[in-house]
TrEMBL record:
Residues 409-427 have a biased composition (Polar residues). Residues 374-431 are annotated as: Disordered. Keywords: ATP-binding, DNA damage, DNA recombination, DNA repair, Nucleotide-binding, Nucleus, Transcription, Transcription regulation. InterPro entries: Actin, ATPase_NBD. Plays an important role in the functional organization of mitotic chromosomes. Exhibits low basal ATPase activity, and unable to polymerize. Belongs to the actin family. ARP8 subfamily. It comes from the Eukaryota. Its main location: nucleus. PANTHER family: ACTIN. This is Actin-related protein 8. GO terms for biological process: DNA recombination; DNA repair. GO terms for cellular component: nucleus. Residues 388-408 have a biased composition (Basic and acidic residues).
Length: 569
């Protein structure tokens, strides 16, 4: 009784920010920290395990790999880039003067005489099997010695769990990797022993388009395997509105391997408006390398599939790529190639419009054929049945159909008994019955199919998402406030470029007085807005009813998520 009373008392006490851990897993990076922290710890969301002798080998790449293009596809990509160069040539700078464009030939000529400056031997070292007991985590994965054949796993790919047929690709293996990575970060970065986690609570930031089975397993991971004293889930787009201090917004999350859009109002992500596109910052990095290769990139030994070169290309892209039309001509780009055990090489090169063309792929998605053709939009899938949750959406839909059918049969029977000569009433009842059943079946499968048939550019995805809002007034509100978050939103000038594209396409009847595109609200890093929003949400008094505790989870299971989840389950 005393234990129960203590537990009830702890549930009613306000949450202390120091005892609340916010976990935001991504396809590339993991952000984790206490709710009281100003910024989270950010590490590479990967794990490397030594390969067993003669065991299978699996290495997830840091960058999404390119594919071999057919002649037709390669021609289409080159023609698209040529068209984009023509567009840049016709643009004006902010002062109204023509903008001088650069060609690949100009850049190649400027870099022809580039000779790298050799420095001292790098003090970095590869991590070998002899240095590792069981695993390597975070940025050290980049230095996992390939000769020792580590298996490298990224638990998330394209914004979802990385299920695949290779070694370490099963759901149980991925959950074990997540337990190891998150547990390691909590112990080593936050300084919290695993035995003390029962006194802490966790908030897990999940994608706006989610798989219910995966969420069920992740809650079990937090409460049972890791041993937190409580947890709740929040969608990343909803968390982003909390971080930005907005009540309603069309949220656009530009991640490393996916771009997602949805409309959020009053802390609810509208299901019909959710779109996920399988391209992101990694695709832009590969497109950037494709362009600079054709412009005489002097670092000819660069191999994007190598973890260190992939990380280097990402740093160059993040440091220099932009969408500011006032930056024109050839620009100086400096970078250092550092490999363990060999002298460093310092490059000083020139790059021209390639710095704009790479991020412009967000508006000309044909060029992302470089990393594969299958990048079409996806919506929220219908729930699959769960034996632990018998009263799920499928059950409610079937019982609703049965109830409607019985009510209509009773209605038609009573009408027929009142007027046995006229059978038209009965026929009308039958037609109405079919109509009701058909409409319920339509409810069971929301109109997500159009999203799966097209490859949307960024502006098209926003327009399509807002168009699926339930009312005209909501559409106007969404067009008036668009929030850009994620690491891919850091390109200077992106908001202006997107604003100009949208103004030409917003339907006249929905045009607000002002369309505001917000990047980095409250001077925050766009990639940390969702994490910060989840931290704010965890400390709200209204969030107390969201917490799920281990004893409840063991007793009730997944049905708790239907009652407690702050989104439509």
């Amino acid at each position: 009784m005393n234990t129960s009373a203590t537990q009830e008392q702890s549930q009613s006490e306000p949450i202390q920010a120091q005892t609340c851990i916010i976990i935001h897993p991504g396809s590339k990076n993991l952000r984790i920290g206490r709710a009281s922290d100003v910024n989270p710890h950010t590490i590479l969301h990967a794990i490397a395990r030594p390969r067993r002798p003669k065991g299978p080998l699996h290495r997830d790449p840091v960058l999404i790999p390119t594919v071999v293009l057919s002649k037709e596809n390669k021609l289409q990509v080159d023609e698209t880039y040529q068209s984009m160069r023509g567009t840049l040539q016709s643009c004006l700078r902010s002062d109204g003067t023509p903008r001088p464009a650069t060609s690949a030939q100009q850049v190649a000529l400027a870099n022809k005489q580039c000779i790298p400056i050799q420095g001292s031997v790098s003090k970095l070292q590869y991590v070998t099997k002899s240095d590792v007991e069981d695993y390597i985590i975070g940025d050290q994965v980049l230095y996992a010695h390939s000769a020792d054949q580590f298996n490298v796993h990224f638990p998330f790919r394209h914004g979802d769990l990385n299920i695949h047929a290779g070694v370490g690709g099963s759901l149980s293996s991925i959950l074990a990797d997540l337990e190891t990575i998150w547990g390691h970060c909590i112990t080593n970065l936050l300084g919290i022993p695993k035995t003390e986690l029962k006194h802490y609570r966790a908030v897990l930031v999940i994608p706006d388009i989610y798989n219910r089975l995966f969420l069920k397993e992740l809650v079990g991971l937090l409460l049972i395997q890791l041993g937190f004293g409580g947890c709740f889930l929040v969608q990343d787009h909803v968390a982003a509105t909390f971080g930005a201090g907005l009540g309603a917004a069309c949220v656009v999350d530009l991640g490393d391997q996916k771009t997602s859009v949805s409309c959020v109002e009053d802390a609810l992500s509208q299901r019909a408006t959710r779109i996920r596109l399988d391209y992101g910052g990694s695709d832009i990095t590969q497109a950037f390398y494709y362009l600079i290769q054709r412009a005489g990139f002097p670092y000819t030994e660069c191999q994007p599939q190598h973890p260190l070169d992939g990380a280097l290309l990402t740093r160059i892209k993040e440091g220099y790529c932009h969408l500011n039309l006032d930056f024109c001509g050839l620009r100086d780009v400096n970078f250092v190639v550092e490999r363990p055990g060999v002298p460093t090489l310092r490059y000083h090169i020139k790059i021209g419009d390639e710095l704009l063309l790479a991020p412009l792929g967000l508006f000309n998605t044909e060029v992302f054929a470089l990393t594969g053709q299958d990048k079409r939009g996806q919506g929220q899938a219908n729930a699959s049945g769960d034996p632990e949750d018998p009263h799920d959406a499928n059950y409610l839909r079937e019982t609703s159909r049965r109830a409607h059918k019985e009510a209509l049969e009773n209605q038609s029977t009573s009408a027929a008994s009142m007027d046995p000569i006229d059978n038209s009433t009965n026929a009308g009842g039958q037609g109405e019955e079919d109509l009701v059943v058909d409409s319920l079946a339509a409810d069971a499968a929301p109109d997500d199919q159009p999203q799966q048939q097209l490859l949307y550019s960024l502006d098209q995805a926003i327009l399509h998402s807002i168009e699926r809002c339930s009312s005209d007034e909501m559409k106007r509100r969404m067009y008036s406030c668009i929030l850009l978050v994620g690491g891919g939103a850091k390109f200077e000038g992106l908001s202006t470029w997107l604003h100009n594209r949208l103004l030409l396409q917003i339907p006249f009847q929905f045009r607000p007085e002002q369309t505001e595109i917000i990047v980095g609200p409250k001077e925050m890093d766009p990639s940390m807005v969702a994490w910060k929003g989840a931290a704010i949400m965890s400390c709200l008094e209204s969030a107390q009813e969201l917490w799920i505790r281990p004893t409840e989870w063991k007793k009730i299971g997944v049905r708790l998520l239907r009652e407690r989840a702050p989104f439509y389950w």
